[in-house]
Design goal:
By secondary structure, the chain is mainly beta. The chain has one domain.
């Protein structure tokens, strides 16, 4: 069983008292959401007929801020990136996209997550492919090639669960943003937070996101 939380908000310096307070508030909100995980997210109407796959849960949150002299992209400069994500769940297929700080997938149903997509948009448009990178460790395969914005990380229709994940932003976006995430395992619960290309999950133990 796997669940992933991610949050994306204006980056604040942790050397600043205000920044520390805001960061703590962001974490508290994400953890509160994690404590009340739904059994399953609503199916995506556009992908309701998708092929069934492993179950998992994904939540997102991040901290971020772009100084006046930091340039990311025309879209990112005009508006802060908006984060959302979806999971491909065993026996259910692709679930609906959820916003940052919410759970994608299912828990408590012994269903694994096979794949996920993480999407960054600004001004109603998808950011460049290299805006974000997602890398998945798949059961029986290992680490697969990293994919970009709104691309599939993992496999579908092969009954191979995701065991770990690494997420990072582009060099441009990472100069003003950090992306934080954590995962949920059956029998273990929520693991510690990690960020910016850190490994969340386990490899070599046969444990799947739930």
């Amino acid at each position: 069983m796997f669940a992933l939380l991610v949050f994306l908000t204006p980056q604040l310096s942790l050397a600043d008292d205000t920044g520390e307070t805001q960061f703590a508030q962001n974490v508290a909100v994400a953890e509160q959401a994690a404590s009340a995980l739904p059994d399953v997210s609503e199916p995506d109407q556009d992908t309701a007929a998708a092929e069934a796959g492993p179950d998992a849960v994904v939540e997102t949150a991040s901290e971020s801020s772009i100084s006046d002299d930091v340039s990311t992209s025309e879209a990112a400069k005009a508006a802060a990136p908006i984060l959302s994500y979806t999971a491909y769940v065993q026996n259910k297929g692709w679930m609906g996209y959820v916003d940052a700080g919410k759970t994608a997938g299912a828990t408590g149903k012994s269903l694994n997550m096979e794949a996920l997509k993480v999407r960054l948009c600004a001004n109603g448009k998808l950011l460049a492919t290299n805006a974000i990178s997602v890398e998945a460790h798949v059961a029986g395969i290992g680490w697969v090639n990293a994919v970009g914005n709104d691309a599939q990380a993992g496999t579908t229709g092969k009954s191979k669960a995701i065991e770990a994940v690494k997420i990072r932003l582009s060099d441009e976006l990472s100069s003003g943003y950090s992306i934080w995430y954590r995962i949920h395992f059956a029998n273990f619960g929520w693991l510690d937070w990690t960020c910016d290309d850190g490994e969340a999950g386990s490899t070599g133990y046969g444990l799947a996101f739930r």
